[in-house]
């Protein structure tokens, strides 16, 4: 089964409301497929976090599997320090994980972006 995460923009109130609704459904025993979501406060923050360079990094890392940051930097032909910075930022938001062997990997098969034009 593919692991998927939904990425989008959401204000704190609607995000909290979604969490509360899910909690209430769980309390009454309603079964529902667990979905992973990552919401940013606005489009600017999303685009600063998920730059085109970081997108390339994610795609390459996904195809390589678990590797060291140094091996990823070498594969991308980029400076280690810059790749390290990008990896740490993507780890902070949950798009990259560290394995028990201290390697990094992308745990997702699909990143689905949802951007509404109107509220």
Task: Write a brief caption for the model.
Helix content is 48%, strand content 17%. The chain has helices at residues 12-27, 43-49, 52-64, 69-76, 80-92; strands at 4-9, 36-40, 97-98, 104-105, 110-114.
Question: How are the SSEs placed, and which strands pair?
Answer:
Elements: E1 4-9, H1 12-27, E2 36-40, H2 43-49, H3 52-64, H4 69-76, H5 80-92, E3 97-98, E4 104-105, E5 110-114
Parallel strand pairs: 1-2, 1-5
Antiparallel strand pairs: 3-4
Helix pairs in contact: 4-5
Give your account of this protein's structure.
With 119 residues, the chain is α/β, with parallel strands linked by helices. The chain has one domain: Arc Repressor Mutant, subunit A (Orthogonal Bundle), CATH 1.10.10. It has helices at residues 12-27, 43-49, 52-64, 69-76, 80-92; strands at residues 4-9, 36-40, 97-98, 104-105, 110-114. A three-stranded parallel β-sheet has the order 2-1-5. β1, α1 (12-27) and β2 (36-40) form a beta-alpha-beta unit. It is globular. The two termini are 32 Å apart. 13% of the residues are buried. The mean pLDDT is 87.
Residue stretches low in confidence (pLDDT < 50, at least 5 long) are none
Provide the domain count: 1
Q: Can you name the CATH architecture?
A: Orthogonal Bundle
Q: End-to-end distance, in Å?
A: 32 Å
What is the mean pLDDT? 87
CATH H-level superfamily? Winged helix-like DNA-binding domain superfamily/Winged helix DNA-binding domain
The gross shape turns out to be: globular
**What would the CATH topology be?**
Arc Repressor Mutant, subunit A
The CATH class is identified as: Mainly Alpha
Helix content: 40-55%
Query: How much of the residues is beta strand, in percent?
Result: 15-25%
Count of individual beta strands:
5
Largest beta sheet, briefly? 3 strands, parallel
Sheet with most strands: strand arrangement: 2-1-5
CA-based gyration radius: 16 Å
Structural class by helix and strand composition:
alpha/beta
Order of helices and strands: EHEHHHHEEE
Number of helices: 5
